[in-house]
Amino acid sequence: MKNEHPKHIIAVSAYVTNENGELLLVKTHSRSDTWECPGGQVEMGEPLDEVVCREVLEETGIVIRPIGITGIYYNTTSYILSVVFKAAYVSGKIKIQPEEIREARFIKVKESNIEEYITRPHMRSRTIDAMNVKNFIPYETWEVEPYQLTGRLEGDWNEG
Length: 160
Known about the structure:
The protein has helices at residues 48-60, 114-117, 121-131, and strands at 9-17, 23-28, 39-41, 63-75, 80-91, 101-107, 139-143, 148-153.
């Protein structure tokens, strides 16, 4: 058998709250049974922190700044590696892309009411992890040849 490269999808999402502590959530056409944190698929060569900003802006009209990674999750059925970021709200008002997103809004979500909004258990656990994160996972972006660090997120608790 020929030695093939594994084929996985990498996705990102953002846990971002507004000044009232409400969580930005979306409903997609393909998963209309649940709310979820906004995000999407990484294209070849895109740094993850840039993708999460792009996806949130495209889906919701909200500008964010990633602070750190709260968790990494893998779906063995669809081969999706999902990276969840905590991000700070920077600016913007909700404006959805109707061809992709059905609805977006800031919602007051707590562990006690999360099941009312996030009905899929794997998405719920990611959101609870992000809600309760104590330490971020460092994230670096590098160019190779020559080696050059182009970005690093370590998480700053004073900014989010």
